[in-house]
Amino acid sequence: KVKYPFLYSHPFLVHPCALFSALQISSFFFSLSLLNMAAGPGSPCGACKFLRRKCAPDCVFAPYFCSEQGVARFAAIHKVFGASNVSKLLLHLPVHDRCEAVVTIAYEAQARLRDPVYGCVAHIFAMQQQVIRSS
């Protein structure tokens, strides 16, 4: 039995970032920057802490995964996508696009852990059905 039967016939899907308001996204970025500033220069980022390696000054993960909460966020990303793949992806992006990419990757990783088959599409579909019911 198919869990989301209308998913196959639905012609329009929304990008996951469209599910959040600009205020939610900006507050997340602000808290992300505050958390990263709280970590001292000698402490490794959450990703390096999780991978049990020394955090290099040019670590691609350091700006996005703080020393405390970053470990849990990175664990989900590593489990779903792998650290090497995410590192390569971030290195191919311009620096000004990396923060949004990390937020999107983290969202998709959490969604994939909750629903391995549909991932974030299940959440998008549920929200689209909510919009359809309310209109």
TrEMBL record:
Alphabetized InterPro entries for the sequence: LOB (IPR004883)
Domain of life: Eukaryota
Record Pfam families: LOB
GO process terms (BP): hormone-mediated signaling pathway; positive regulation of DNA-templated transcription
GO cellular component: nucleus
Domain LOB: from-to ranges: 43-135
Family: Belongs to the LOB domain-containing protein family.
Name recorded for this polypeptide: LOB domain-containing protein
Species for this entry: Opuntia streptacantha (Prickly pear cactus)
